[in-house]
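Researcher: Next entry in the queue.
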Amino acid sequence: ERTAEARDVGGSNPPLPIMKFVARVLEDLRRATNRRNEITGYLFYVRGLVMGYFITGEGSPGKVVDSEKRLRELENFYEKIKKEWGEDLLAIPFHTHSKGTIKIYGEYYATHPSEGDLETMIENQWKETCIFTPKYIINLKRTGERFRKVLLPYKGYKITKPHRTYQIHGKAYCVLPMKR
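Model: Structure for this entry, 180 residues:
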């Protein structure tokens, strides 16, 4: 029986581009890994930098699903920020492996996706996802049924240019460019 697995990047594999994150995004999502329950949502990615997020659901350790109501709210939020960022804006799915998940299922999940995570990527035809754990961000990329993972440290980039933000307390946050 075939099982899905994610291979660590290295050796003869060509390097994957490394995601960069706005510091506030990382602070919020890392804080979320300290909970018992997991969260899921989407990251907003523009020209190599994760500028924001939207939380679409919460669940128990090892099981998290999107809320239909939150998915509808996401569409409105995404359309607003897409007007600001333009066609370069991408939405990348994410979820957490919280401290509660790791306590119940083991330390392995602090640095690895579950088989269910990989199956979800195939079922939803996602090319990329991120899993936030208390120790790392697991960045997964998929080609067909092959997966590659990169463990990213929690290193955020401070925005020094003038900017605005758009947020919904406890649900969403995004950095926006200054009006032209």
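Model: The radius of gyration is 16 Å.
Researcher: Noted, moving on.
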